Amino acid sequence: MSSASTQLITSRKMGIYDPFQQVSMWEDPFKGDISPNTGASTILQVDAGLPNKSEFNSHELTGPSRNDEEGNNTADKVRRRLAQNREAARKSRLRKKAYVQQLETSRLKLAQLELELEKARKQGVYVGSALDTSHLGFSGNVNSGIAAFEMEYAHWVEEQNRQIFELRNALQAHVTEIELRMLVESGLNHYHNLFRMKADAAKADVFYLMSGVWRTTTERFFLWIGGFRPSELLNVLRPQLEPLTDQQVLSVCNLRQSSQQAEDALSLGMEKLQQSLAHSIGAESVLAGNYGSQMAAAMEKLEALEGFVNQADHLRQQTLQQMSRILTTHQAARGLLALGEYFHRLRALSSLWAARPREPE
Amino acid sequence: MDKVTRLVSEKGIVIFSKSSCCMCYAVIILFKELGVKPLVHEIDEDPEGREIEKALMRLGCNAPVPAVFIGGTLVGSTNEVMSLHLKGSLTPLLQPYKSP
């Protein structure tokens, strides 16, 4: 078991913990194994000087189970996988706890420093914008919920890459239906975790989530209420699921149409929210006293945003569930692989774009 | 609550809403898109609004709006409506009430 698994590197220059400069503590054990077009951009920068810890044991599947001992091997693998999942989840929870505790300490320190800053400012001392509070959330307080989300999300992406790798291997190696089913369940569960994380983040700062700043630039291009449009993803994936039975084709079609209708309804709801918010703020306050109630009305509108983000994620979740019901295990595995690879490539594209050579001025 | 019971039996599809609620608006739009005309009851414009709200919550609606009733039975709130629709189960429920 890892003892000092959460060593946070504070920015020693400032003596202040800045979560956006934070260093990744987990090395991706499959970094070397993933295909060359991986430009996997994680939000966190890796500091070469840090001790690297591998959280995942690499004794995952490396080949097909032998036919003559298939039954026992499979059951063992199932047990082992469940145990690994439990262990990984437990470690994740411990890491998160330790991390949040560290953040709280830093938050207090930051609050103290800000007070001193204010004093200095009032006395006419110029202070640089190094402590630009817009990055740190509202009122200059470190939003620990968002910082925790960023950490968890980076971890989620790494796990996602690992699962894609495993799925690809499993499909190529023609593993048993049971094995494949387990991988599909893991994959679906992984997305379920993402939506849970997003729900927590929405409570912490819904605008952060909606801005898509936690995603890469190309992913952000497709942003719809804090994520992807399920109907669009279905369009992208459908060709890769062939061959489909007539019944399946019909079901997928209906699902896509239903999702589209639901998405459109939510979009119109969002538009109405924007309009009524604009109306609240824009309404003429004839009397000075109106300002307060105007703002209160506007605040109420903003609270509705969290509901929209949750509903959008609910749609994404339901689309995944429905697809897993419509498809066979093998198709579902291919679907998850295709989905994972799609996002992976989008992220890689972001990195390429950021690194592209530009004309000198 | 009597008023709720009476209202939901008045018409096939009844949606309790609040005029300020944009999620309610989204759900109503969805139903219209599916070819039905729900009876929309804005409880913030009803003097007995508070009572209705309490009754809806007693029936199990956390929100309490939007609350969707089809054929006098509570279907649920946004979550339930969306889930049903993606499963393909909402349209059949609406079939009897579609405008020709």
From TrEMBL, chain A:
Keywords: Activator, Coiled coil, DNA-binding, Nucleus, Transcription, Transcription regulation. Residues 96-123 form a coiled coil. Gene3D superfamilies: 1.20.5.170. Residues 53-75 are annotated as: Disordered. Residues 75-119 form the BZIP domain. Residues 146-356 form the DOG1 domain. It is found in: Nucleus. GO terms for molecular function: DNA-binding transcription factor activity; transcription cis-regulatory region binding. GO terms for cellular component: nucleus. SMART domains: BRLZ (SM00338). The keyword Transcription applies. One of its GO terms (biological process) is DNA-templated transcription. SUPFAM superfamilies: Leucine zipper domain. InterPro entries: bZIP (IPR004827), bZIP_sf (IPR046347), TGA_domain (IPR025422). Belongs to the bZIP family. This is Transcription factor TGA7-like.
Automatic annotation (TrEMBL), chain B:
GO terms for cellular component: cytoplasm. The keyword Cytoplasm applies. Residues 13-75 form the Glutaredoxin domain. InterPro entries: GlrX-like_pln_2 (IPR011905), Glutaredoxin (IPR002109), Thioredoxin-like_sf (IPR036249). It holds the Pfam family Glutaredoxin. Gene3D superfamilies: Glutaredoxin. The keyword Transmembrane helix applies. It is found in: Cytoplasm. The chain crosses the membrane at residues 12-31. It comes from the Eukaryota. CDD domains: GRX_GRXh_1_2_like. Keywords: Cytoplasm, Membrane, Redox-active center, Transmembrane, Transmembrane helix. Belongs to the glutaredoxin family. CC-type subfamily. This is Glutaredoxin domain-containing protein.
